[in-house]
């Protein structure tokens, strides 16, 4: 599961956080924080998680602007 969360730091700088969660255990498998988070920035994180933990049987996304279903489908077909 992938989720983009927004956070505003003390200095009023917005940050976006990519959280990859194991839905069964609720374990945070990966977290990436950046000022901007276009979909291409999330793909290396997903690839690293797949190499570390294996191919998931299901991937769910909130389909936000940062990670459209089309981008997720393209990534899944190449990995």
Provide tags for this entry.
79 residues, alpha+beta, 3-stranded antiparallel β-sheet, 2 helices, 28% strand
General description of the model:
This protein has helices at 39-53, 69-78; strands at 2-8, 14-21, 28-34. By secondary structure, the protein is an alpha+beta fold. β1 and β2 (14-21) form a beta hairpin. A three-stranded antiparallel β-sheet has the order 1-2-3, with helices on one face. The longest helix has 15 residues, at 39-53. The model has no long low-confidence stretch (mean pLDDT 76). The radius of gyration is 13 Å and the shape is globular.
Blueprint (SSEs and pairs):
Elements: E1 2-8, E2 14-21, E3 28-34, H1 39-53, H2 69-78
Antiparallel strand pairs: 1-2, 2-3
């Amino acid at each position: 599961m992938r989720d983009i969360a927004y956070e505003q730091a003390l200095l009023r700088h917005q940050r976006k956080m990519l959280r990859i969660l194991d839905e069964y255990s609720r374990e945070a498998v990966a977290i990436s924080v950046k000022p901007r988070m276009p979909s291409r920035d999330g793909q290396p994180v997903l690839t690293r998680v797949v190499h570390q933990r294996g191919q998931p049987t299901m991937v769910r996304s909130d389909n936000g602007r940062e990670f459209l279903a089309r981008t997720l489908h393209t990534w899944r077909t190449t990995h």
